[in-house]
Amino acid sequence: MIAGIVTPDGEPTILVPVAGQEWSAVIDTGFNGDLELPEALRPFVNARFRGTVQSLLGGGQQIEETVYLVDFPFDGHVVLADATFVEGQGMLVGTHLMWQYHLDINFPDRTVMLERLV
């Protein structure tokens, strides 16, 4: 089980341990991929080029992104996941990575729970 919080800005977040550090990751239910990771993590997740994809962003903007297969630590396991890399410190966890989980976001209590079901 993974526990997190809803930030004062209303973002559901969890902490993910990567490269000896805890990284804050936003649970993005509008993102149907696996991961968007900070460029700084690329050397720590064994990124392997997978190809390019067209992505449709929330505002209707379409972009081309390079996707990598990565070894990502998640819920006490290392999972294979597709990831894109961006500048900055932001990390997004998409719905495809959570397909085996029940997600509970309680906005009034500011809690986030991810429970593995499979």
Describe the structure.
The chain starts with a strand and ends with a strand. The model has no long low-confidence stretch (mean pLDDT 94). The protein is globular. It is built from no helices and 10 strands. A 10-stranded mixed beta sheet has the order 5-6-7-4-8-3-2-1-10-9, with no helix packed on it. It has one domain (2-116): Acid Proteases (Cathepsin D, subunit A, domain 1, Beta Barrel). It is mainly beta and 118 residues long. 21% of the residues are buried.
Summarize the SSE layout with pairings.
Blueprint: E1 2-6, E2 12-18, E3 21-27, E4 35-38, E5 48-56, E6 62-74, E7 77-86, E8 92-93, E9 101-106, E10 111-116
Parallel strand pairs: 3-8, 4-7
Antiparallel strand pairs: 1-2, 1-10, 2-3, 4-8, 5-6, 6-7, 9-10
Which short descriptors sum up this protein?
about 120 residues, mainly beta, Cathepsin D, subunit A, domain 1, 10-stranded mixed sheet, 10 strands
